């Protein structure tokens, strides 16, 4: 569903948001797209268990846990940070995943960095038995295939396609399906420029760029300006934004419009990639720091 913002932007710019967050009540946005063909493949291989990786407030962990339960599969989550093992009840994401039947295994941050090493994966097989591996963030060739379905023929009129970037899977699918006249802009939620190489693994087109100025200090980092922006955007448009991904992307777009980044009459499509479950965990962190919270009804 495409929803045009009823805002008068300078230079006759128009903005429409593709509401991928409405795809599914739990497995929304890019998580739905990434898991679609991976779930089909797991069943084709007669796998009974999904195993994946994620952090304390991972949208991916929550999505895999629910999707596995919905499909009658078992799930295992390898969670970054062994200190979290006794804090499940105070973590909305991990508590939800566990309630969906996911078996949580907490590992040290040092061990977590080995998640792509064959020896580490071999140990997991010895520990848990046979499983279907879904990478951290869900990004693999099948996930890209799913994300290529985000854009539809009705999106051909847009000049710019914008999305938040985590592991690079969503933007890769969008780049592959974007038309030659369209420019794809990615807004990384992580610090660093390493994502360029990750994305190039999956794409051939060159009509894309990463805008690295709006990560707000890195993954999961926010400040009061961003929280105020998300709250005000919801009041004005009744569209909820998450603070880790889409909120930062929309903040960046609005700032770039004010800086005359976009040509006159630009028609811009923003991809809402979901992730709204993360608001509960973020608000818990903000309350501990006695900072303003995100006031959105989700």
From TrEMBL:
Where would I find the Tryptophan synthase beta chain-like PALP domain in this sequence? 14-274
What InterPro entries does UniProt report for this protein, alphabetically?
Answer: ACCD_DCysDesulf, TrpB-like_PALP, TrpB-like_PALP_sf
Q: Annotated Gene Ontology MF terms?
A: D-cysteine desulfhydrase activity
> Which keywords accompany this UniProt record?
Pyridoxal phosphate
Q: Does the keyword section mention Methyltransferase?
A: no
Instruction: Kindly list any coiled-coil regions of this protein.
Output: none
Cofactors that this protein relies on: pyridoxal 5'-phosphate
Q: Where on the chain is N6-(pyridoxal phosphate)lysine found, per UniProt?
A: 31
Q: Where is the active site?
A: 58 (nucleophile)
| Pfam hit, one | PALP
Tell me the protein family, please: Belongs to the ACC deaminase/D-cysteine desulfhydrase family.
What the entry lists under PANTHER family is as follows:
1-AMINOCYCLOPROPANE-1-CARBOXYLATE DEAMINASE-RELATED (PTHR43780)
**Record protein name field:** 1-aminocyclopropane-1-carboxylate deaminase
- What's the source species for this entry? Flavobacterium glycines
Q: What is the lineage of its organism?
A: Bacteria, Pseudomonadati, Bacteroidota, Flavobacteriia, Flavobacteriales
Q: Which gene encodes it?
A: acdS
């Amino acid at each position: 569903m495409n929803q045009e913002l009823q805002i008068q932007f300078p230079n006759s710019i128009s903005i429409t948001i593709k509401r991928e967050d409405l795809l599914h009540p739990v497995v929304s946005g890019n998580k739905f797209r990434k898991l679609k063909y991976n779930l089909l493949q797991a069943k084709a291989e007669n796998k009974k268990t999904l195993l994946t990786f994620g952090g304390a407030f991972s949208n991916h962990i929550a999505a895999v846990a629910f999707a596995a339960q919905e499909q009658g599969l078992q799930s295992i989550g390898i969670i970054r940070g062994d200190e979290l093992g006794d804090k499940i009840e105070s973590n909305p994401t991990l508590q939800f995943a566990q309630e969906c039947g996911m078996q949580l295994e907490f590992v040290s941050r040092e061990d977590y960095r080995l998640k792509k090493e064959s020896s580490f994966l071999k140990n997991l097989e010895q520990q848990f038995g046979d499983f279907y591996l879904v990478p951290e963030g869900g990004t693999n060739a099948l996930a890209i295939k799913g994300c290529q379905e985000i854009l539809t023929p009705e999106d051909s009129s847009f000049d710019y396609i914008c999305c938040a970037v985590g592991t690079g899977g969503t933007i890769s699918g969008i780049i592959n399906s974007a038309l030659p006249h369209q420019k794809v802009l990615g807004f990384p939620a992580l610090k660093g420029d390493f994502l360029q190489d990750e994305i190039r693994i999956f794409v051939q087109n060159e009509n894309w760029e990463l805008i690295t100025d709006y990560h707000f200090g890195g993954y999961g980092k926010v400040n009061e300006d961003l929280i105020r922006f998300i709250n005000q955007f919801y009041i004005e448009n009744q569209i909820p934004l998450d603070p880790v991904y889409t909120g930062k992307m929309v903040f960046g777009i609005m700032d770039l419009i004010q800086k005359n980044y976009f040509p006159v009459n630009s028609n811009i499509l923003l991809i809402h990639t979901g992730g709204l479950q993360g608001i509960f965990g973020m608000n818990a962190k903000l309350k501990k720091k006695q900072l303003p919270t995100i006031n959105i009804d989700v």
